[in-house]
């Protein structure tokens, strides 16, 4: 619309002075176009950093004209990852037009967490996710979109099942995974382990497809939730790995990748957390080495400077119009609480930060900026479920200080039975989620 | 449904399910386990040395009452050889401490422990009521917070005791950890998770033997042991994040009861990841510790404002404080305080040492309390009160 149309209804944009201001950047009234630029620039800034790091990691042995980097976007079909895909897609379009030299290959992967039985049909079924994927593909023609079912976790090369409860392999894959999750002690455990599975599949897909980096759609708000959520689940040591940009340890055995799939699971559009990452140097000096030792996958959060409400405003702009496309999951911050037993820690955090975002968004930005500064430590031994470093010394100290009573005290039989078979290689957070 | 059998003795009927691990226990086994765990904490952290004199900060509330009872029991049972004494503070607010001080006096008799009650008049030369008379009720929250923060340390020092134990529980710890995350204060996150704060160079070291004990279990313990405690309502309104952090902790606990302990574990681990913090072993006594630390951990204690020593936003709801005179001095005082804060970064006292996180800490030249300034806030406030008193007398 032209600036003549709305003489006084909307003041003119403070930035371009030509279009009516319908949105705000902080307190400044701006038009949609300027708002879009504002959001996009934040993302592009992060992408430039990612490109530099990816190029540097690729080595100096490619003097000129390196091949375009390959980025894998985790797509949950939620608002954040959809918004990210849109921003990257628009960015890619303009790069290809104007500056192909710095363009990239864009792949988006959805981990389909639908575990109902149709997922096991022999032919690629017409699942809700695959239908949605086709809609997305037509909206984002420059990207290549794929689905990986959650059941791929059963064959994921990164998974070590020895510490998990036994599976019934006579069941179809979807039922196996479903039963496994249902058997976990709480809603929080299920969400936690599900996220870990999704992260496994994302990382494995990134490796399988030879991608240079995995792009996750978490906003600042989501990263703050992630930080406090991880802390509340006993995953404090993993926080810097989970929140900061940069190399993420590839879980255990990287054998020639089998079939994993990626996705960004959580219905709210935030995918990140999934795996807790490790600790290090805190370990005892066990130097058992694996063939993947030290292997990492670069992970970036290009939306890390964008608040959730800012992204929602972006998605709702006329030119962007993603709101109808996005699938919002049940566990959004506004759903009614039926019973606290049915809530996950993630849901509690989402509610909490939805409130904080309204009144004190600086707190959210502060949480993320601060926790990014924590040191990443990595030891020799990783948790067999989440892949993060084990902290045996910390575990021992903790047991001592807390005074957990062993044999004659209370019933640890349940635990000791389960652990006797496996070498008990779970981090504190996974131990809590899997064993209660 | 058949009643559950106690997982400990396998004979009695279980009456409680422990929040932190779901174990179902009978009353006797619960009491034993609760005490054993505190004992474990004390031993593995090497909290006490034989012959040491230890002051228990006693408010008459459940936490400090349980702490006194458990320490008395464990000291006898395991022969720690420490000399325990109860230390209570009387702010000098007419009527406010009457019931809780009576409770502490009964506790002293019940546990056969010596008790010292120290008033603000002895610690600072002013009771809170006198402060209110002098400056009016609006500014006194500043005094209450600052005075309260130091009161136990000053008291212990006055008694010649170098080790002060307080009743902070796991809920308090978890709350403090979340609060420090929310305000992005990593150095304090690191300090506040330690069981012992202060070291040989501090005049008074502080420790928290109940830091892994759930508030719910403390209440149960007090209930089953029929302890005599006074349920005080907190008279301070929580500072900005303290309130929301507490609500958040309660919500997390409802969703997953182990969350409180899980937060504590995370906080300790994250504390080790703070750049510039030397790793500590199980006995974290090497920390040079800071002044606000205690404030952070007291669920119902004195509060500071958001950013470290800022004093803004404090509020107290003593009903008694209805006097309304002397407003001018309040303004004067506020100016002094903000001035004081403004110079915080620049003025480094000669005795300053760099502690974890790069914060400069030294000692108040007047009272010796940890301070980043030449004089601590309490001494500044007292000085300001005295100065104004002299002024009005002339
Ligand atoms: Zn504009
Ligand atoms: Zn783990
Ligand atoms: Zn029993
Ligand atoms: Zn002083």
Automatic annotation (TrEMBL), chain A:
Name the family. Belongs to the CTU2/NCS2 family.
Record's GO cellular component terms: cytosol
Task: Return the HAMAP family for the record.
Answer: CTU2
| PANTHER family per the UniProt record, alphabetical | CYTOPLASMIC TRNA 2-THIOLATION PROTEIN 2
Where would you find this protein in the cell?
Answer: Cytoplasm
Main localization is: cytoplasm
Protein source organism:
Sodiomyces alkalinus (strain CBS 110278 / VKM F-3762 / F11)
The name this protein carries in UniProt is Cytoplasmic tRNA 2-thiolation protein 2
Q: Name one GO biological process term.
A: protein urmylation
TrEMBL record, chain B:
| Family that this chain belongs to | Belongs to the TtcA family. CTU1/NCS6/ATPBD3 subfamily.
| Gene Ontology biological process terms in this record | protein urmylation; tRNA wobble position uridine thiolation
> Can you name the source organism?
Sodiomyces alkalinus (strain CBS 110278 / VKM F-3762 / F11)
Per its UniProt record, what Pfam families does this chain match? Answer: ATP_bind_3 (PF01171), zn-ribbon_14 (PF16503)
This protein's superkingdom?
Eukaryota
Cytoplasmic tRNA 2-thiolation protein 1 C-terminal domain ranges (all copies)? 362-389
For the tRNA(Ile)-lysidine/2-thiocytidine synthase N-terminal domain, which residue ranges apply? 54-235
The UniProt annotation places ATP binding at 57-59, 63, 89, 167, 172
Magnesium is among the record's keywords: no
The record's subcellular locations are: Cytoplasm
- Please report the name of this protein according to its UniProt entry: Cytoplasmic tRNA 2-thiolation protein 1
Q: What class of enzyme is it?
A: transferase
